[in-house]
Write a structure and sequence with these properties.
The chain is an alpha+beta fold. Helices cover about 40% and strands about 45% of the residues.
Length: about 140
């Protein structure tokens, strides 16, 4: 009887952990979608809320921005996303930190000039006080 109870308990614990991790990964994916929507809408308050003040936002050009510079670039129109599509997305969790990798394809209107961009992106999200916020981002041109 003890073995049946112990086996059932272990299955419940393992099942709960797997469900919890899948739920967390889904939450992170939703957060990434919300972040991209805020970039397309140039929603400065939302972008500030979703990023850390110590943000390191690195572009494929090698330019690295802090939180203020990143948000200002989006809200000023210097970096204007018309649409963003993500493919090949993966999410990995380590405690209260998540890394997200994907291919970002976007239509842009930077400084009122139409363009397109295709980048391999790495995002680092950290959870604090129950909320996921972007800590770092690195973009590179994807390998051919």
């Amino acid at each position: 009887m003890k073995q049946i109870f112990l086996s059932t308990f272990l299955l419940f614990v393992i099942g709960s952990a797997v469900y919890g991790q899948k739920k967390t990964m889904h939450t992170i994916e939703q957060t990434v979608d919300k972040f991209n929507k805020a970039m397309v809408e140039a929603d400065g308050p939302e972008l500030f809320d979703m990023t850390y003040p110590s943000l390191k936002y690195a572009h494929s050009s090698g330019v690295v921005q802090n939180q203020q510079e990143f948000v200002e670039g989006i809200t000023s129109g210097r970096s204007d996303f018309v649409s963003i599509k993500l493919t090949e997305q993966t999410v990995d969790l380590v405690g209260n930190t998540a890394t997200v990798r994907h291919i970002l394809t976007a239509e842009t209107f930077d400084n009122k000039v139409k363009g397109t961009v295709r980048l391999a992106v790495l995002l680092v999200w950290a959870k604090k006080h129950g909320k996921w916020r972007l800590l770092a981002r690195q973009a590179v041109k994807p390998a051919k």
